[in-house]
Amino acid sequence: MKLGMIVMESPYQHEASDSAIQFAKAALAKGHEILRVFFYQDGVLNSTKLMEPQSDDRHIQKQWTAIGTENNIEFIVCVAAAKRRGINDTVTAEGFTIGGLGMLTELAIEADRLVEFRA
Amino acid sequence: MKLGMIVMESPYQHEASDSAIQFAKAALAKGHEILRVFFYQDGVLNSTKLMEPQSDDRHIQKQWTAIGTENNIEFIVCVAAAKRRGINDTVTAEGFTIGGLGMLTELAIEADRLVEFRA
Amino acid sequence: MNDEMAKLMVVFRTAPYGSIYSFEGLENVLIMGAYDQDVSVLFIDDGVFAIKKGMDNSGTGIKDFSPTFRALEAYDIEKIFIDRTSMESRGLTKDDLVIDAELIESDAVEKMMEEQKNFFMF
Amino acid sequence: MNDEMAKLMVVFRTAPYGSIYSFEGLENVLIMGAYDQDVSVLFIDDGVFAIKKGMDNSGTGIKDFSPTFRALEAYDIEKIFIDRTSMESRGLTKDDLVIDAELIESDAVEKMMEEQKNFFMF
Amino acid sequence: MLHMINKSPFESMSLDDCLKYASKGSAIILYEDGIYAAMAGTALESKMNSIAGDYKVYVLKEDLMQRGIDKLISGVTEVDYAGFVDLVEEHKTCSW
Amino acid sequence: MLHMINKSPFESMSLDDCLKYASKGSAIILYEDGIYAAMAGTALESKMNSIAGDYKVYVLKEDLMQRGIDKLISGVTEVDYAGFVDLVEEHKTCSW
């Protein structure tokens, strides 16, 4: 199937990002196509390369970047949500692109399934 | 009274930051002393000067900075929580200082009242 | 409406202001209005509070987005539904709301979701 | 213990992992242990799930912080309480927990909070 | 004790949780989405009437206005942020 | 429909909300803090037994393991992330 994924919450504060990462890995392992992951609301905070978790903890941005670059998945960071939260292209990591909310509508039109990871 | 305040959630996503700002203003108007505002968990995201909300919306970081500089209040941004979320001293705005979690314990020891703004 | 159009829906189910979900749901509806699709809007649970009349943000300064719901018609979004039970159990009547919405029963909600190509929960 | 010490408490009331509150509550207890104060810890509501035995993070990679609760004694934090009703209504007994905690009744919780100089809810 | 409730009673158990521990006569302030508990005419009204009889229930005016809620159950007291500060001065606070 | 529930049933009404709309036989997956609803021996067990009879209830293995929960009520099905993906392929999803 052609999957669309939406991440609505910030990394570490909520489990939403972790669940989305595990789900994406499992979907790819089964040969499904992820059309796009749309980072929305506090989800935009997944994209910052300034993230430095403790050494014994997972690095959520790097986990995303690894999945995205290995599988050539488009990661869109909602521009309005990002600006409100201090995320711009000086801080976004490799693999993340800032884009408009229209790309979420387009995803809803194109995807066979849409899965929201939220609070 | 000597107040300690804790902000636990990100700006815009939750009302916690807005409530904390209104509470701080009201407390100062009554002549109370705010010993420190401790920004913790996603609350650290209140401190970023990269925040650019839409022009018709409030600017939460600037609201904090105005309160802090006019009243000489200490705003401490938890270092471990900040690092995890991509907040460091290259992005923190005027009036915010990155500090250790011990400063929250010290606040609990010194304050007459502690008020948490959380989800 | 033609077969090329996708059926899309935004479901509002959280209270406004306490979290940003409700505001972002509205932002989405407005964007979807620009894509010439078959868009509908549904209010359930605490989502009904987003369209309560009489909001006044002078005490908080948080952006009041309720007037924007009135703009939905201008975007040709006319399929607006509200779960009757959610509304009534929250002490509201249609007169309390900023927009006109068609009342539906709770057992129609899941079917309405199933009929969409995709839908969003906010 | 002397009069110079402040009575401080950390209350755990949220489930672990779904949100970071529980983890940060523990970080706080550990820091407080370094300040030579009269520190206590209380588990109520879903907070009791933080000290459930048998956690295995191999499927998620999320840091398992439950073993760190066992270090509380080393920090001289020995006043550890759990609300009996919260524990029992969640199907748990003391044998299910990674640490030993004293059972208290729900009507003692507010009084215990009142006795503190200050306390934190996580 | 001042118990602070900021979540919708239709969605969250936080008010019920708080009541398991709060002794009668304790103060409760409803703010943010918590204010919906004080609204008149809802399915929770009779439960809330009983709570308002047993506890000192306050509700934050600014958050009521923000949400367009003006009809309240009887027995609750509206306070503005200045009144909220006074309540915090009087009581230790507990954020649920 | 696959209803996705990620909040603790002791703290959130999201499962109850979902059930007001879900027709009998619909699928529900419990994940994140939602998994506690499937735990055996809690105060919710009889309510959950009834729900497990009326709906197809799945519970995410990785989140059960993370939380150390191994005793489940009868009538619920454990799935791992691969099984979660299969359920999403079969059903439209609704995140509560």
Short description:
The complex is a heterohexamer, with 2 copies of chain A (119 residues), 2 copies of chain C (122 residues) and 2 copies of chain E (96 residues). Chain A has 119 residues and is of the alpha/beta class. Chain A has helices at residues 16-29, 60-71, 79-84, 102-110, and strands spanning 2-7, 33-39, 75-78, 96-99, 113-117.
Outline the biggest β-sheet of chain A: 5 strands, parallel
| Assigned CATH class of chain E | Alpha Beta
**Number of distinct beta strands of chain E:** 5
CATH architecture of chain E: 3-Layer(aba) Sandwich
Secondary structure elements and their pairing?
The complex is a heterohexamer, with 2 copies of chain A (119 residues), 2 copies of chain C (122 residues) and 2 copies of chain E (96 residues).
Chain A (H helix, E strand, L loop, with lengths): L1 E6 L8 H14 L3 E7 L20 H12 L3 E4 H6 L11 E4 L2 H9 L2 E5 L2
Parallel strand pairs in A: 1-2, 1-5, 2-3, 3-4
Chain C lengths: L6 E6 L8 H13 L4 E6 L22 H4 L9 E5 H6 L12 E3 L4 H6 L3 E4 L1
Parallel strand pairs in C: 1-2, 1-5, 2-3, 3-4
Chain E lengths: L1 E4 L8 H8 L5 E4 L14 H10 L1 E5 H6 L9 E4 L1 H10 L2 E3 L1
Parallel strand pairs in E: 1-2, 1-5, 2-3, 3-4
